[in-house]
Task: structure prediction
Amino acid sequence: MKKLKKISPLRIVFLIVLVAGNTFAWFIYSSKIDTDISVHVKAWDVVFESDENEIHSQAIIDVGDIYPGMDNFSHSITAYNRSEVPATMSYKLLEASILGDTYVTVEGRQENGDTPLATDPTSAELIASLEDDYPFTISFDVTSNTIAADSGQGNYVIGVVWPYESGDDETDTEWGIAAATFKEDHPSDPSISLKLLLTITQNVS
Result:
């Protein structure tokens, strides 16, 4: 019978740290692996930065106060690709709260492990509504769908615009009063809150 090798405590600690580090990694790595095919996972280092703080896949954007003629609001979240291959940027809207009314998307329910309701909009449907159904416009944009390898970067840009006159005085007045009333009743709450799922995926050939 072969004598079993002793494993030193230092090596055990090293293995625990290695496994914990890999488990903590937040990124999404997409690939298709067939039987008997060996795949080399290249270095993958993508950093999200928003106001100099790192965020891991989910981002919450709050807009404190909205009113007709407000200064245009714009918030940018930068993704840096420090890996060896290009990467693709994408996003989904999980949830939106407008003056206290909250809408959860199908993707938002799924992200929370819940069953979507029949009345839940999809991410695309809610984004279209936020762009078209209010006197103010909430926009979502990606500066580049693909980020170059090594030192490439791209931005997720969220904007809110409410012109002094949108062309519909009645709607401007109705929503202007609603926005003022909301802030009077909830001075510490954001008028608009958006929860996004930000995704970076390696382009593996």
About this structure: Residues 13-41 have pLDDT under 50 and may be disordered. The longest helix spans residues 169-185. The chain has four helices and ten strands. The chain has one domain: 43-202.
